[in-house]
Write a structure and sequence with these properties.
Layout: H1 2-24, H2 39-46, H3 50-53, H4 63-75, H5 79-93, H6 101-110
Helix pairs in contact: 1-2, 1-4, 1-5, 1-6
């Protein structure tokens, strides 16, 4: 059972990393963040989106998932934050094929956010430093 918990935690981190990129690129409404975003922080905020990102049949993102995207959008206030978020995505996404990138790419629109790029595990992090 410990092995399953470890795998679930790793998959959660991968999915959360994908979502932080969505939120980070959506623009900044917070004043400034003290430090670059950390993947662990992102994973904690994005746990409610996990079933949707792993492609569970019939799942849709619900309120708390989209609210978490809004929080991350506020936290990703600087170019450094957005680069950190992208780096988190790239580090996690390549190792976890269970993340459905088609769903991740559509999540911003589903939650009422607008971003200027497509989410993928091969993103160029230099492209997310500016607001859309």
């Amino acid at each position: 059972m410990g092995r399953r918990t470890s795998r679930s935690s790793a998959t959660l981190a991968a999915a959360a990393a994908v979502l932080v990129l969505v939120a980070a690129a959506g623009g900044a409404s917070a004043a400034t963040a003290a430090a670059a975003l950390q993947c662990a922080q992102v994973a904690q905020l994005m746990a409610p989106c996990m079933p949707y990102l792993t492609g569970a049949p019939g799942m849709t993102p619900y309120g708390i998932c989209c609210n978490s995207l809004g929080v991350l959008n506020q936290l990703a206030a600087t170019p450094a934050d957005r680069v950190a978020a992208c780096s988190c995505v790239k580090a996690a996404a390549g190792g976890f094929p269970s993340v459905d990138f088609a769903r991740a790419a559509g999540l911003p629109a589903t939650c009422g956010l607008s971003i200027s790029f497509t989410i993928s595990p091969n993103m160029d992090c230099t492209q997310v430093t500016e607001e859309p």
